[in-house]
Write a structure and sequence with these properties.
By secondary structure, the chain is mainly α. The chain has helices spanning about 10-25, 30-35, 40-55, 70-80, 85, 105-115, 125-130, 135-145. The longest helix has 13 residues, at about 40-55.
Length: about 160
């Protein structure tokens, strides 16, 4: 579904925090808010723990090869804006930081733009501060890059 995140591979702590934000009305999504407002703390814990057990899924293959110039610019932007400091060198996230590797590009774009304009709250101001001064076209390039980030070959670490 368009604008829907990939949940598999998200850390349990991150997932429970997002469910809490939806339940408490601090994060806005009509469908998620309607569902989450019925959750008890145990429900949220159970769902988030389950999500945390799901292995990450690779991004679906693209019909065309990634644009090298955009990928190079995306890499430079990710380094310049220190995305790897929180999300990790492989963008796998951890604890309260989401996995963004293999995430849907449309969802990444929407999220980055929401943090940029202040409509997407976080449980801290870190993302808002990190992206608020980045031009929108650079946010789109970051979304392009991360959505196509080359996954490591299993066993190659």
């Amino acid at each position: 579904m368009p604008l829907t995140p990939v949940l598999a591979g998200q850390p349990a702590f991150y997932s429970i925090t997002q469910l809490f934000l939806f339940r408490e009305g601090r994060r806005s999504n009509q469908a998620m808010t309607a569902v989450a407002k019925t959750f008890t703390d145990d429900d949220m814990r159970g769902f988030s723990e389950y999500i945390g057990t799901l292995p990450p899924v690779p991004a679906p293959p693209s019909a065309t090869a990634p644009d090298k110039a955009r990928m190079d610019k995306g890499l430079a932007l990710a380094q310049q804006h220190k995305c790897v400091f929180c999300h990790g060198a492989d963008f796998s996230g951890g604890q309260q930081v989401p996995r963004i590797a293999g995430q849907r590009e449309d969802y990444l774009k929407m999220s980055l733009r929401g943090f940029h304009d202040g409509t997407r709250p976080g449980y801290t101001q870190a993302m808002t501060a990190a992206v608020s001064q980045i031009p929108l076209e650079d946010l789109d390039t970051l979304a392009y890059y991360v959505a196509r980030f080359p996954a490591p070959v299993p066993g190659s670490k």
